[in-house]
Every structure is written in structure tokens, then in C-alpha cells.
Write a structure and sequence with these properties.
heterodimer; A: alpha+beta; Peptide Deformylase; 16% helix; B: alpha+beta; Alpha-Beta Plaits; four-stranded antiparallel β-sheet; 29% helix
């Protein structure tokens, strides 16, 4: 077990796209234990993603069970997570272990349906809402090199960035239908 | 690091104000800190932290041509604080109601009375010019229970102004 070093902006490594996990072995599970230890060592983070500790694999941990009156699924290790469905939008303030001394308002889907693998490679499926859904979306962004600062909106105007459909081969990696950024 | 100054610039809104102001500061060897800029009633307003060797004199000299060309009013003060002094808001107060004099004064006085620290505030007047309504959004910090804040604004609420007070939580991920 070890507390790993957390990459912080403007470190360009945070912008990398992470690769899917293919080996569900003891090495993976040892890394997950270190990742969780790192999350707990920081300032009250409800989640952490592997790229934040310089490991570019699609692994996130989320645990909002410590928050009062919050629907949750407890301590979650999500490997190769995919959002299959989302609905609703809500703005709330976020911060990040990788972005010290800054918080900002971000719009996220309020309900999501999610598939993933557990640390042994078994399939998982969740429906989640609210704070837990927000935490998962925040962490999953890291897997594509996106940080909440890329999605911060003006509280005054609540602007949604107009969606731009790009030609094939120029996809930005942005999830279609997901709102992001202010003007 | 040179000392920080707080610059206030206001003038009739037009394209190019921000570019001209920041270019002049950059050309003078200055750097920028936190800023808040917004169009208010057809004017563009800038509150900007800047630091430059040579201080206030160097800043006014550098900005003089821009201020003259764009017809801006410029004010410079030494800024006591520095960067990295952020406070994270934990309470949001939203106010809407038929426009009348005194709404902001009443609510902010009530909140100040219970030690509420306003970190961000914006207001607007919207609606029909004949029937205007007032909107105010505050984000701030309070270490008192929400019930105390609710009680503080109760008189304003009783006068027909909607006041919504909610905890805001920052998700750290």
C-alpha cells in the first residue's frame, strides 16, 4: 500500500486518453488499493481516477456514502466504465485533487445508467442519480483527459455551449449531448 | 514578484476593450491575476488585479493611450491581498421580486447581521419596462445554520420578495 503522487494542472499528462484495462489481475487490484489510499489521504475527495496518479488506464473510484441523505451504491471501483444513458441537467460547484485552489460551476446529467467491470472483470450495471452520478461523470472525464475546468459555466448566464458536429475522424471525444463550457 | 494593484476600468461597451487593456499591461512587462469583467447597462466594467515593476506610475503610463483612445475611466489602487486567497461558498441566496428600492439593502443587511460573508453577487432588472422585476444571486460563506439565515430574511420575504436560501456543496473529485 502506498499514497501515490497526484498530478496537478498544468501537467499535460492529465490530458492523455487512458486505455481500457485488459488484465484483471493481482497487480490491478494492488494498484486499486493504492489509488483508494491516495483518495483517502487527500482533502475529502469523493472520487479519484487512475490518470490523476499517472496511470493511464480506465479505472475510477467513487464513494459518496459519507454524505448525508444521498442515494448511493457505497464504495465503487469502476473499470472500463461507460455511460449508456443519461438524462436531466443540473449545475453545481466542483473542485478536483488535480486542480488545487480553484472551484467552479459545472453542468452534469442528473441521472445516468452505467456499465463497468469490477476488479475481477465481472460486469457491473448501475442506475444512479444526483451527487453520485455527478461524481462518476467527474471521474470518468479524467479517463478522456478532460477536467472540470473544461466544463465550467458562468453562474450568471448558465450558457450551454452550442453543440458542434464534427466530421468523422475529427471527433473531439466529447460525449454527444453533454453540455460543456461557457462562451 | 512586484506588488499587486487593483485596476478599475469602465467605459461605453465596444469590441476590443479587453484586448487593448491587457496588451498594454503585457507590453509594460506586467502580469495579470484574478479579474471580473462584465457589461452593465451598456458599459463594460473591468476589475482586474495586475502586477508590474514600477507600480502604479508604470501602469497608468502604459494604459494612458488606451484609456484616451477608448474613452475609459481608470482607477488604480494598491491591492493588499494576493493570489490564492479563495474562499469556497457554502450558501446560495436567490432573490426575485417586483422591482422596488431597497431590496438589496434589506437582504444584505439582514445577512450581514448574522455574519454572512458575500463572495459573489450579481443582480439584474428584467421583465417588461413597465413592470420590472429584480433578480439577485448571491454565493457566500456562513458558519451559521440555514435556519438563522432564513429567519434573518423573513421580513423581506413577508413583503412579497421571493428569497431562496440553499446550501451549496462543492464536490471534490
Amino acid at each position: 500500500m502506498a499514497v501515490l503522487e497526484i498530478l496537478t494542472l498544468p501537467d499535460e499528462r492529465l490530458r492523455q486518453v487512458s486505455a481500457p484495462v485488459t488484465s484483471f489481475d493481482d497487480e490491478l487490484r494492488a494498484f486499486i488499493a493504492d489509488l483508494e489510499e491516495t483518495r483517502l489521504a487527500g482533502p475529502a475527495a469523493v472520487g479519484i481516477a487512475a490518470p490523476q496518479v499517472n496511470v493511464f488506464q480506465r479505472i475510477v473510484i467513487v464513494d459518496v456514502s459519507g454524505r448525508k441523505n444521498t442515494p448511493n451504491h457505497g464504495y465503487l471501483v469502476l473499470i472500463n466504465p461507460e455511460i449508456a444513458h443519461w438524462e436531466g441537467f443540473e449545475m453545481a460547484r466542483e473542485g478536483c485533487l488535480s486542480v488545487p485552489d480553484y472551484t467552479g460551476n459545472v453542468i452534469r446529467a442528473t441521472r445516468i445508467r452505467l456499465t463497468a467491470n469490477d476488479p475481477w472483470g465481472q460486469p457491473l450495471e448501475f442506475e444512479m442519480e444526483g451527487y453520485e452520478a455527478r461524481a462518476v461523470q467527474h471521474e470518468m472525464d479524467h479517463l478522456d483527459g478532460t477536467l472540470f475546468v473544461d466544463r465550467v459555466v458562468s453562474r450568471r448566464t448558465d450558457l450551454f455551449r452550442r453543440k458542434v458536429y464534427q466530421k468523422a475522424g475529427q471527433a473531439s471525444g466529447q460525449v454527444a449531448g453533454q453540455a460543456a463550457g461557457s462562451a | 514578484m512586484a506588488d499587486w494593484y487593483m485596476l478599475t476600468l469602465v467605459g461605453a461597451d465596444r469590441p476590443g476593450i479587453v484586448a487593448a487593456v491587457t496588451q498594454a499591461i503585457f507590453a509594460a512587462g506586467g502580469s495579470l491575476g484574478e479579474a471580473s469583467m462584465i457589461r452593465l447597462g451598456g458599459n463594460f466594467s473591468i476589475m482586474l488585479m495586475a502586477a508590474v515593476d514600477g507600480g502604479e506610475a508604470r501602469l497608468s503610463e502604459a494604459l494612458a493611450p488606451v484609456v484616451a483612445r477608448l474613452d475609459l475611466r481608470l482607477h488604480i489602487d494598491p491591492a493588499a491581498g494576493g493570489l490564492h486567497q479563495h474562499l469556497i461558498p457554502n450558501v446560495q441566496v436567490r432573490v426575485t421580486g417586483a422591482d422596488r428600492a431597497g431590496i438589496v439593502a434589506e437582504i444584505t443587511a439582514a445577512l450581514a447581521e448574522v455574519g454572512f460573508n458575500i463572495l459573489e453577487l450579481d443582480t439584474d432588472v428584467a421583465g417588461d419596462p413597465q413592470r420590472p422585476f429584480y433578480l439577485m444571486n448571491i454565493q457566500g460563506f456562513s458558519d451559521r445554520p440555514l435556519e438563522e439565515l432564513e429567519a434573518a430574511v423573513a421580513p423581506t420575504r413577508a413583503s412579497g420578495i421571493a428569497v431562496d436560501i440553499a446550501a451549496v456543496e462543492t464536490l471534490i473529485g
